[in-house]
Amino acid sequence: MAPNGKASSKVVREKQPHGYEFFGPPGALVISTALPVVCYALAFFCNDISGCPAPSLLHPSTLTLEKLKQEVGWEGFSTLINTKAVLATFGYYLLSLALNTFLPAHEVEGTELRSGGRLKYRLNSFSSAIFILSILAAGTLYQGAEFPVWTFITDNFVPLLTTNILISYALATYVYISSFSVQHPTDPNMRELAAGGHTGNILYDWFIGRELNPRVNIPIFGEVDIKSWMELRPGMLGWIILDFAHIMQQYRNFGRVTDSILLITVAQTIYTFDALYMEPAVLTTIDIISDGFGFMLSFGDLAWLPFTYCIQTRYLANYPVELGWKVLGVFAVQAIGYWIFRSTNNQKNRFRTNPNDPRVKHLKYIQTESGSKLITSGWWGMARHINYLGDWVMSWSYCLPTAVSGYLVDYSLNHPVSPAPADAIFFNKPYGKYVYPGPAKGYGMVFTYFFMVYFAVLLIHRERRDEEKCRRKYGKDWEKYRELVPWRIIPYIY
């Protein structure tokens, strides 16, 4: 993945001052400290020990810390991480690195850098994922739901989360320190500082990412582009591996696998494999071409994405929901979302790579002074960020299968002995353990529908960031484009 030839002598154009994002250093401080806490809150407060949410949270006036600790299984900070989880995580990372290096791959060039030239990328995420999942499938065929990988993941969910959080902090710190070896504004190795990542504020630059495309040479594995590698692996593949682990957990718990957990896993697997298969398209995303690599991306890729996006399957592993015919409605939502998502991105990528392609040559556009073309018809004439609508609609299909969620955990052998509710669902083991909705019904939606709400906020914020970047890049051409395409994400609404 060496740079394409020598660095260009092209002079980097002076750009408008970039300014702070995420409310600057205060926002960076809050996000980098609060989001790990949110990850732990989702993991502990929706659990298989007492319920989802933990019962004490339903009665805040009588809530005590000691009672809450008991309900979430808190045994001290030492239980947040263990050696086995650390070794397993690094083993997974090493396997991903080995597959990246030794499996056949396509070498493609990225977009042109501000200083000229293009970096080369080695892409084989799709085949790497197939390799890893094939190993897991073989183990499952041989040992079923008791395959040690599945039991290890569900037994060590929190320690695995902690390990990845710590790695994300360490990685962000490493790339920040390394960025000071970049020869700015022109580096002979085509290294660049991100436009908004060298403000001079240590905390903010560490958070947002100081270097645009940090790379590292690792013995045996060669040169690795850290940002593109982290974008799709190990976190994104880890997301669906966690989903599969929760399917196996549901089977161990109840002796069956429900249509709801299968539907979510299939939908999320399709989304993930779409990204893996279309890996070259990642090189044209804002993450790669504009954002530096710092804590924001390292934490998002390694901890936030896999461990919070799987919350619905983790919920269903402990409270099975049968959808029946309703599965068709959820599937329709997923299909519509995916159709919008894939159609819009295909149209954009085809137009970028070959405007004379018969499928896109009819599209109208604005020719900008920067040399780029802004599409003003087709999908992109409906809204300036229409692809985000598809993303958001798909997120509904991940949450809807959990229905009106919420459950409590109880044991029929508790004293005094009381009959289980009529809607109780018993675990295979331990004997007498069961779940039932009870007064928790509906309150679990705080957890299982969290993703849909969060994703809406994320996409709106991302759209606002895109708008600002495009305003700086295209100037008056962007204002003209906004007049022709007035809607941001949802035509005639937003």
From TrEMBL:
Q: Which UniProt keywords apply?
A: Lipid biosynthesis, Lipid metabolism, Membrane, Oxidoreductase, Steroid biosynthesis, Steroid metabolism, Sterol biosynthesis, Sterol metabolism, Transmembrane, Transmembrane helix
Question: Where does the protein end up?
Answer: Membrane
The reply on keyword Aminoacyl-tRNA synthetase is no
What is this protein identified as?
Delta(14)-sterol reductase
Q: In the record, what terms sit under GO molecular function?
A: Delta14-sterol reductase activity
Membrane topology annotation: Multi-pass membrane protein
Q: Which ranges does the record mark as transmembrane? A: 123-145, 157-177, 254-273, 293-311, 323-341, 442-461
Instruction: Name the GO terms of the biological process aspect.
Output: ergosterol biosynthetic process
What organism does the UniProt record list as the source? Delitschia confertaspora ATCC 74209
PANTHER family recorded: DELTA(14)-STEROL REDUCTASE, DELTA(14)-STEROL REDUCTASE TM7SF2
Highest taxon of the source?
Eukaryota
The question of whether Transmembrane is a record keyword is answered with yes
A GO cellular component term found in this entry reads: endoplasmic reticulum membrane
Q: Which family does it belong to?
A: Belongs to the ERG4/ERG24 family.
Q: Name one Pfam family in it.
A: ERG4_ERG24
By its UniProt entry, which InterPro entries does this protein fall under? ERG24_DHCR-like, Sterol_reductase_CS
